[in-house]
């Protein structure tokens, strides 16, 4: 979860006593005080209608605030022209909000063109970004309708980044794509952010997405009140009140494990055998145990072998069951627990830097170890 | 079919055809020029939309001959002045195109409008570069209809003495002589066809995205 910070060009966004009252009297945001730190992802999360979008859109003055002050890099946003301000802030919404009548290339080049970069420079920049978000350059001439939802989303991100703004605002950017595509886009987005280090404010109603993406999470409750602002680990470990606890869910204890480092989780030996060994060797290695861990020539685990299965004459590839997720010193407790729960033998496999077998640990052992750590484990 | 009549009246036929083109197409251009700002306003202010629809329907339901005859009185023009026809057909064209423009602009999704604003389009530039292009398919559909309708309506003007090719109908009818009627019919059908092809070609050129088939 360590994300590199590039302070170069990254700016802080601050809300000071910001209130938004719509003309019909609805108070969408009331007295909001919030800081989105430079180069970090700040996630706004909360139930529908709690004022997340309103808060986000006040930053680029798409919605004018009623009272209070929003500053970017210390400057009041009201001190710059709205159009000028917006061209320095990337904006991504569901489906990317692409212009249906423009090619992918023209969509991406939008802000450079508006900034008067000149056609050639804007186009070469657009090609660069197309590659950056992982799309083939053959897509440049396509129209948005010819792209899948996930591809449209990437083009939306590319467009937001085209003029290299220090800030990116994202309103439920990944919610219009199916869960598998979404997970992929989220991972890619985190990798991208590691390189670019933008100040990002991202709105979602999905607490899992907030925990996965956020360096900081601002939980809103209805009426535009802030319930809690904290890094994900702390939010899971110490919800401020029942509302936040309800939002992060009953399984927060399990989720918090994502933020607990492996540390000195003890691993024990298990019987092992090299792939291709005879049945006799396997039985001898296993002793009383049902499950035998099968390693390749470099001692990397490749599967579990059930010594009680009939009709097998040697420890061959096709007789193996998956080892599941392995974990190393850099992994989280959750990776270890996932490995144990997903393994046929109930044991998660710990490997070293080269992927070689170190030891095994069961779900019960993990649970005991975590319990012994207490709350300090979360480090928040 | 009297081919001699055709050759000896080439000049007349050309004149009538030119007049027909002028009487049919100038109102389309004027109607569009009127429809763009009015359509823009009705699209922007939701409250104006229903009255606009009603006005458009009412205007369109007035018989053309009535307009042709009423206008000299209103405009102070001569009954034989082609301006009467131009004004009447402009009203029809405008009444219909205003709907096309408004519907086209209303078809622009909130998300597109919102993101255009958010990336830093000034309002006028957003309308010209984003909203109007997206409205084009609607506007072109209106233009096709209006153009063909105008080409056929011009002929009605012949009943009051100015109607382009329509005059060939009245002439042939009065003399029970079929050649001019056939020539008039063929030419107005050809004219409508050419105009339609020209519009469709322009549209294909201006709205390439509408033809881009989905590949995913
Ligand atoms: N233009 C408007 N006029 C009046 N009320 C509005 C307007 N826009 C939003 N609201 C109200 O303000 C409140 C906050 O809306 P907002 O869109 O910020 O919520 P949100 O947290 O983004 O919700 P969602 O998760 O559903 O997108 C809601 O009660 C909404 O009905
Ligand atoms: Mg919202």
Walk me through this protein's architecture.
The complex is a heterodimer of chains A (380) and B (216). Chain A is of the alpha/beta class and 380 residues long. Chain A folds into 2 domains: 13-88 and 165-259, Rossmann fold (3-Layer(aba) Sandwich), CATH 3.40.50; 272-375, CBS-domain. Chain A is 32% helix and 23% strand. Chain A is built from 14 helices and 16 strands. In chain A, the strands form 4 sheets. Chain A has a 6-stranded mixed β-sheet, sandwiched between helices. In chain A, strand 4 and strand 5 (75-76) form a beta hairpin. The radius of gyration of chain A is 25 Å and the shape is globular. The relative contact order of chain A is 0.11. The model of chain A is unreliable at 1-8 (pLDDT under 50). Chain B has one domain (3-210): MetI-like fold (Orthogonal Bundle). The chains are: A alpha/beta (380), B mainly alpha (216). Chain A binds chain B through residues 57, 60, 62, 83-84, 86-87, 89, 91, 93-102, 110-111, 114, 142-143, 145-148, 151, 159, 169, and chain B through 111-112, 114-122, 130, 133-134, 136, 207-209, 212-216. Bound molecules: adenosine-5'-triphosphate and magnesium ion (MG). The site of magnesium ion (MG) has 3 residues of chain A, from helix 1.
Notable characteristics:
heterodimer, A: 380 residues, alpha/beta, Rossmann fold, CBS-domain, six-stranded mixed sheet, B: 216 residues, mainly alpha, MetI-like fold, 80% helix, elongated, binds adenosine-5'-triphosphate, binds magnesium ion
DSSP strand count of chain A: 16
User: Tally of extended strands of chain B?
Assistant: 0
Give the quaternary arrangement of the chains: heterodimer
- Tell me, rounded to a whole number, the average pLDDT of chain B: 91
Summarize the helix and strand pattern of chain B as letters: HHHHHHHHH
